[in-house]
Amino acid sequence: MSDPDGSAGSAGSPESTGSTVGGVDALRARLPDTRRGAEALLDRTVRENRFTIAVLFPLVGALALVGSAEGWVPEPFAFHPWFVLFGVLVMRSPLVVGTLPAIDRRAVGWVGVLIAYTYAVELVGVATGWPYGSFEYTVDLGPMLAGVPVALPVFFIPLVVNAYLLCLLLLGSRASNGWLRLATVIAAVVAMDVVLDPGAVALGFWSFGGGSFYGVPLSNYAGWVVSATVAVVTLDRAFAGTTLRDRLRDCEFMLDDMVSFVILWGGINLWYGNPLPVAVAAAFGLGLVRADRFDARVFSPWG
Predict the structure, then answer these.
(1) For the packed helices 105-128 and 152-171, what is the interaxial angle rounded to 10 degrees?
(2) Name one GO molecular function term (predicted).
(3) pLDDT at res. 25
(4) Is residue 37 within a helix (H) or strand (E), and if so which, with residue range?
(5) Residue ranges per domain, the chain?
(6) 83: Cβ–Cβ under 8 A, 6 or more apart, which residues?
(7) Which pLDDT score, from 0 to 100, does residue 16 have?
């Protein structure tokens, strides 16, 4: 509050300016100034919020999505694209933060190739029906371009990376066998889509116009075999050394995004009465327990 003459305590006074500058300097001093420091800060942030990220967000997300589909959530909040995208980004954060130390120029280049493939195959799929079968997005998942979400890599790539990482853990030393690794990851990716697509179709995210498997045509899963093969070959080249496997071994939260996947899509399929997708989601949950990536004490709000 200024004095009557306006000379003291004004916004432009030296004291005020000095305080602002000092606050900015203090903030800068607390921020890391190296990549390793930034990674350590992000690790700590995710580690301290595992329950919120991997359990609370997917639970709230499942309720919000089902509520939107059932008409319980009023406009304009039903299926609000920015809310959906924000929730997905939060749930993806353990995977992104966990992978960061293994990212180098080689990995950036190959992940870029995978992103380009993601857009290309989806654009072709929307236009021609190949390789997944004819489908269309019936809900805008963020900004759309030519009928495809601009944020598509945020939805697609983590799915295949999660499957890739889980298989590396479960296979152990056998993961060095390229053909076994390829076959196992393809099976895991297809199984994840057995959970994802029926739930998404039930919500009305997208539509195939009908199909024999909970509204999904079997051709969709043949398409996922193609995309999973491309993803595995690309990820093998992106992370050719042992850095990713070493990080996976030491980073306990790296697969928390898959915990979110099990809760979110398992819960949605349970609501819509899709027993086989629920069973497959539960199987992924058991795989996470076997890989020592799920501990009820860690994922408890009182843990």
Answers:
(1) 120
(2) lyase activity
(3) 66
(4) helix 35-47
(5) 47-290
(6) 64, 77
(7) 57
